[in-house]
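Dissemination and training. As part of the outreach component of the grant, students in the summer workshop were shown how a complex can be specified as a set of sequence lines and then modelled as a single object. The example used during the hands-on session is reproduced here so that future cohorts can follow it. Participants entered these lines:
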Amino acid sequence: MEEITTNIYKVRAGTFEGPLDLLLSLIESRKLFVNEISLAQVTEDYISYIKSLSDMPDDKRIADVSYFILIAATLILIKSRSLLPNLVLTEDEESKIVNLEARLKLYQIIKNASIDVKNNFGVKIIFSPLERTWSEPLFSPDQSITIEIMSQSILNVLESVPKKEEKLGVVEVRKVINIEAIINSLTNRIQSAINFSFRDFAKSHGAEDEQEAKVHIIVSFLAMLELVREGIIDVVQNNSFEDITISKEVLASSDQNLQTSN
Amino acid sequence: MELESKIEGLLFYKGEDMSVWDLAKLLRVSPEEIDEALNMLEQSLKNRGIILVRKDDSVALGITPELSSIIESIRKDEITKELSKASLETLSIVLYKSSSAKESAGITRHEIDYIRGVNSSFILRNLLVRGLIEKTTDERDNRRLLYKPTFDALSYMGVASIEKLPNYETVRSQLEAVIIGNKNDE
Amino acid sequence: MELESKIEGLLFYKGEDMSVWDLAKLLRVSPEEIDEALNMLEQSLKNRGIILVRKDDSVALGITPELSSIIESIRKDEITKELSKASLETLSIVLYKSSSAKESAGITRHEIDYIRGVNSSFILRNLLVRGLIEKTTDERDNRRLLYKPTFDALSYMGVASIEKLPNYETVRSQLEAVIIGNKNDE
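and obtained this result:
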């Protein structure tokens, strides 16, 4: 038992089954309940974990990075709301937050149940009887046992064996943009312009399709939050329907933002 | 000869699970009579070396878990008891989330992925190969594939039915509570 | 747990004769105690579907003779039922993986399960009962059980030599590749 608890709480790259596992571990290690407040509190830890994933060499990087990024999007909504009190979320965004909370609670229940399963699995087995040898086998073919059907059947078998890539779960891993690179680019832009639109910034990466554009926005947002944390820029959103404006920052105010959010 | 004894004999002969329906057909009685006789058989086997294992509409006879360690010592093949963290999670979902009630038995891969937050196809395949879960099609919609625990999964857990899993009722009601509280999910 | 129940469980597991001496050794009691418990077990099994069969110093569980006609019909059904797609696929794996070269003949159940992505024990059992495949132990490792097609099955299909099956070389090497992939996973 003791071993399990210490293992779960150690946050180390590559040790998590998925984003929910990571998120739950972060919350539980702070002895918090699953709710919006605790989610906001662990957002930064979560993001730095994803950053450690994208810094890993390609072959070591886990296949599920995209799943981590998807959850990050919702976390960023939660974090933004705590950073920007005047931010009004859409219905869709609200339901994403509620949804994440519920999923996390489901995951927590299963996680606890899985400890019971682990402790009982294979300890006291109800064995099935050995194969029965009541009577000698009686050769009884049927008409479908022909060379033609056998050679067709084996082809069906081979066709349904999953390919190596599928097997590893690397179905379609989009190359996730390096967060570090975006931070650098963002810093450069701030130096040249006092104000620019976040939307323009996210667009400027030239996404190929909508899916990819979403990933760009998320990663850009992550980078932006990172800069806010480091006190380099200040995020101002004048009106909920307007774009977020990024400007060179008055250091003190972003520190305050951060303190209130933590 | 009592119906329950006949069932016992047939299950002994088969050495694997049989459906209530097959038993009814073979013994020329109604499925209800089989069900009733199974309840009696379950009682008769209390404290015996044999135990009745029930799952969905099927039953099998197994050796009481008290003899587990003796049998392990005489088995030729090794038993793999290790489950990775991912397999453990996925198996737990299939065990606790798929109710034994006929009409709602089984869980889709999509639901499993949703709970785990990652793609589970590789893990599901592993569990299928190990015979801990099985894949069936939804009776009401044959395009829907459902995953269910197998008799072996119950056997490894040392329980004669899903309801006897540790904390089954508690976990079920916790799951229900979250799902009802979040009706608009997905 | 009573000694008689333990004996019952072990005999049920084995499905074949065990000597009083073996039982005594396994259960760490004297042969006299076993004998005594067997007498009690014999009593407990009165009117049940299972009977105790004693011969000299050996015992086994058997099915009550009253059920023999039903069992006859189950057996008939087992061997005359049309082979399912899954059964044919399993048979084709056993067929293609076998070889006329003695040292590389046969495939394990685990390998079959892995190739098919599901547990195959019931299907293999049925193929055995029908005399289409047979089970042997690996000469190099007697813990490994190997499945092979029977001579009868090969001659029924008119296969003079496995190597002459359509696409034999390609299929064989693909099967090997899948099996090796499995070993790397573990």
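Residues 31-44 of chain B form the longest helix (14 residues). Students were then asked to discuss how this feature might be tested experimentally.
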